[in-house]
Design goal:
about 100 residues; 8 strands; two-stranded antiparallel sheet; alpha+beta; BcpO-related WXXGXW repeat protein; YXWGXW_rpt; two-stranded antiparallel ribbon
Amino acid sequence: MKNIKVLFGILFFALLVTSCRTNYVKERPTIAEVLRPPSPGNNYVWLNDNWVYNRQERNYIRSNGYWAKPKTNRNYRQGYWKTNKNSSHWVAGRWK
């Protein structure tokens, strides 16, 4: 029974580590111009597109921007591409 618990602990840790790793690509995806829909109200802010990594195809897929109500005492930090010597990866936008 103890061996099974240890095995499940190792498997859980391995899944956690692989799901958190950064996904690099050699070329950034092309950017498409998208028309912003009208705001649903005065107290909304526009959150720009994000990019989501598709593990099967090993590329990024654009996630459309949307209107959201601001979180109390927080600012939204837009996502951006971070590039190193040979590749790039997307750092997702988030509330800070």
